[in-house]
Design goal:
Number of domains: 2
Strand content: 5-15%
Helix content: 25-40%
Distance between the termini: 30 Å
Number of helices: 16
Radius of gyration: 23 Å
Shape: globular
CATH topology of the largest domain: Alkaline Phosphatase, subunit A
Oligomer: single chain
CATH superfamily of the largest domain: Alkaline Phosphatase, subunit A
Number of strands: 16
Strand order of the largest sheet: 5-6-4-3-7-1-8-15-2-16
Structural class: alpha/beta
Length: 464
């Protein structure tokens, strides 16, 4: 009997290893290092009066690991090199999309599966021609060659794209070149204006899901979807995009989709702690949409979650043996929005602007002074920043936005009180997490290089 039992076990293992993933979800949290994840869980626990973690869905997945992220040209990668590596399994130089370090074109898992008859969807919370999404369909020596990348998007024949739109829909070097939105329609793409319109357009062929006001950016920079902390009920979300993508791709026997939480990176570049936490929670909410699909197809679905790199050098702790993450619940908007509000108030009031007006605005959006006690030194620092703003418009430069220096100083104080620390406004070489569930998920346990992730996903789709 024991021998028969062992034979049964070995046969079962063989059957399990032969399973094929027919539905693959790849989630990439741009800039999402281990502390972006852990701080979110510890913040949620603190809100419930506990010390510890309130797990996100992604961290409950049965298989997990870590990946190194260095590029071919640097120990610290950018999103172009890391996006290319996650899409293709090939290391390349920073700033390069879909090319090896010797400029040879390399092809993504998405493009290979498309050639095999799979449905393919690429989606993000930033522009659809940004570094991470474009690595799945484009080849460019510079990630900033947005118009050329956009033309490759519409030629890809992928079934679905979703996000903020095209970074540069007009070719500034050629006034006769078509607008990318118009070119997409010529190539058979339906342009859906928001979630409600997308649900009406399902089944109409290839789709690009855009914000409902995308036409306002028809000839200018598209920007990104709003931060979760700033979102209104009418704004498009990553969860909605994933939901529409599943419906759009379900007509295929097999599909692959990549979904990027792109603004975890933006907020980390700005060292905006509370906004990072909201972006990670929002990313996890999109994963929940895919997980519900997995529950209906557990023997055919693979979900893999990782990051392209860590941003900001986030640390949990900056002084004593205390965390006070719950203080971040007082923050009502992103640093970007607070910066805009302060700059607009200054522009409106001019020399008449008083410190008490500014103090009220800061308090309403951060809790400083009202919900969060301020020291004499901290108050003096903010008043000094106010005086500097009144004499000349000080800015703090980050990768994606020049920020009002007073707004940045206010949130730096709130971050310090929460005990979050930051080492940089750029990327780091930190390892990033991997979480996986479903067919072939066991491949992702342990320590990996990020060049291993795409081949492992591809292997899971090819098992017979």
């Amino acid at each position: 009997m024991k021998r028969l039992s062992l034979l049964f076990v070995f046969s079962l293992i063989a059957l399990l290893s032969a399973a094929q993933a027919k539905y693959v979800f790849m989630f990439i949290g741009d800039g999402m290092g281990p502390h972006q994840v852990l701080s979110t869980e510890m913040y949620l626990a603190e809100l419930e009066g506990k010390i510890g973690r309130k797990p996100l869905l992604m961290t409950t997945f049965p298989y997990s690991g870590q990946a190194a992220t260095f590029s071919a040209s640097s120990g610290i990668t950018d999103s172009a090199a890391s996006g290319t590596c996650l899409a293709t399994g090939i290391k390349t130089n920073n700033n390069v999309i879909g090319l090896a370090h010797d400029s040879t074109p390399v092809y993504s898992v998405a493009s290979q599966l498309k050639q095999q008859g799979w449905g393919v969807g690429i989606m993000t919370t930033v522009t659809i021609d940004h570094a991470t999404p474009s690595a799945h369909y484009a080849h460019a020596s510079s990630r900033e060659d947005y118009y050329t990348i956009g033309t490759q998007l519409v030629k890809s024949n992928f079934d679905f794209f979703g996000g903020a739109g095209f970074s540069r829909p007009i070719d500034k070097n050629d006034t006769t070149a078509p607008n990318l939105y118009d070119l997409a329609k010529e190539k058979g793409y339906t342009l859906a204006a928001g979630y409600a319109d997308a649900t009406k357009q399902l089944g109409s062929g290839k789709m690009i899901l855009l914000p409902s006001n995308y036409r306002d950016k028809y000839t200018s920079y598209a920007g990104a979807l709003p931060y979760a902390i700033d979102r209104t009920s009418s704004d498009l979300t990553l969860s909605q995009i994933v939901e529409v993508a599943i419906a759009q791709l379900s007509s295929y026997d097999c599909f692959f989709m990549m979904a990027e939480g792109g603004k975890i990176d933006y907020a980390s570049h700005a060292n905006d702690g509370a906004t990072v936490l909201h972006e990670v929670m929002d990313f996890d909410a999109a994963i929940q949409v895919a997980y519900r699909f997995y529950e209906q197809h557990p023997d055919e679905t693979l979900i893999v979650i990782t990051a392209d790199h860590e941003t900001g050098g986030m640390a949990l702790g900056n002084s004593d043996y205390v965390l006070n993450l719950k203080v971040l619940a007082n923050q009502q908007c992103s640093l970007d929005k607070l910066s805009d509000q302060l700059s607009e108030l200054h522009k409106k009031e001019g020399e008449k602007l008083q410190w008490e007006q500014v103090k009220h605005l800061i308090s309403a959006n951060t809790g400083l002074y009202t919900q969060v006690e301020m020291t004499t030194e901290e108050d003096a620092a903010l008043q000094e920043a106010f005086a500097s703003m009144m004499s000349h418009q000080d800015v703090v430069k980050t990768l994606y936005k020049d920020l009002n220096a007073l707004a940045a100083k206010s949130l730096a104080i709130l971050n310090k009180k929460s005990r979050l620390g930051w080492t940089t406004g750029a990327h780091t070489a930190s390892a990033v997490p991997i979480f996986a569930i479903g067919v072939g998920a066991e491949r992702f346990t342990g320590w990996h290089d990020n060049s291993e992730i795409a081949p492992l996903i591809y292997q899971a789709t090819q098992s017979k």
